[in-house]
Amino acid sequence: MNLSTSTQVSAGDSDLTYGTGPITWDDATWILTSSFIIFTMQSGFGLLEAGVVTSKNEVNIMVKNAADVIFGGLSYWMIGFGLSFGVDEGVNPFCGVGYFFVDSSNEDMGLLFATFVFQLSFATTATTIVSGAMAERTKLSSYIIFSFLNTIIYCIPAHWIWSEKGFLYQLGCVDIAGSGGVHLVGGVAAFVAAGLLKPRMGRYDNGIEPLPMGNAVNTIIGLFMLWWGWLGFNCGSTFGISGGKWKLAAKAAVVTLNGSMGGGAAGIIYSVLTKKGKYDVGYIVNSVLGGLVSITAGCAIIRPWESIIIGVIGGILAIVFVRLIDKIKVDDPVGAVSIHGICGMWGLLSVGLFGGNDTLENLTKNRYGLFHGGGFYLLGIQTLAVVCLVTWTSVMTLLILLPLKYTIGLRLSPSEEILGADVVEHSIVNEPVTTNYSIFFEIKQSG
């Protein structure tokens, strides 16, 4: 995924060197098509989250997903891409320099623009992960500011992992499609945000059992859209189909599907065993997503049968940690911390255990995971990556959200939260809150 500093251009922009091999127009088509598929994940996240929250907040959560693309996308175009993949003088192991306000009229236009669109789809996904954890009690104005600034949180670790100058890349960290760079970053930010916001009113008055879903069908439809988008996410991260890349892309598809099936199977079995024979929709959805997140880091270098094991573990982690997070009363309505944060950690570490050497595009730099005789080096680097990403994301999320909390405020007022963000932020009155018209007009009159 790194934008190589050794990029070279030949006549007609038809043969660009990228990483270990050339980027051709065929590769650019693959990259752009994958990017467009990844963007459909915004719809999937939106539907899944809207299905989990109460109906009085479903429009608001969809708007927040739109804000992630609008405002997160603007800041990524302005500075984010450059801080991740800039190659101008001054680039260093911490951040990139250059490509700010992305534009090009030179021969590198094709590679630069295709790479930008692909990386933009990743950046907006990392922000969208946080929206679910902040659902049902966050001011939209504050969330928009966070969405704009969250690019800073995402783009620096992306440089560390995917730029040839990044220090984790140079040490040999492997995160092919973003278990760490996207999901762990998003999950940690979600944990910090949910902790600062405090629980929804009355959330734990009757214990830690999850609240009823507003629309389980929307949640499942969202899952399918994310499933589809994940194939673009993981297979597209081979960054082309020329040379050996098409083989890795095909392998990534199989491994991704196996990981999700392993996670889903574990979730269904766990539900039947713990829910008196019932098939809990939340367990099924979370376990599939947990399997997908877990396999994302190693999708092109893990064997298909190993991906099932990784997916099973990820599916169980996603379910178990949702309850553990609730026990410490960090209110995460959609389970983003567990699915993306915990399973993102597991995804990075699983490469250090199960990673096989890639002889096609040298993605692993001739290293193996512990279970394939590679010793502890790769596992150690993957562990270092977890520590760095958790530390960076925690600190930066606090630095962004604390000033918002103590200035314009992060949270809706109690009366606004009771009424619901749809009517307060968008003047949309849903059926369950029609009896609260008087509260609505009081809020409108008071400004």
From TrEMBL:
Annotated SUPFAM superfamilies: Ammonium transporter (SSF111352)
Gene3D superfamilies: Ammonium transporter AmtB like domains (1.10.3430.10)
Origin superkingdom: Eukaryota
Keyword Transmembrane helix part of the UniProt annotation: yes
Tagged with keyword Transmembrane: yes
Keyword terms, alphabetized: Ammonia transport, Membrane, Transmembrane, Transmembrane helix, Transport
Family: Belongs to the ammonia transporter channel (TC 1.A.11.2) family.
Entry protein name: Ammonium transporter
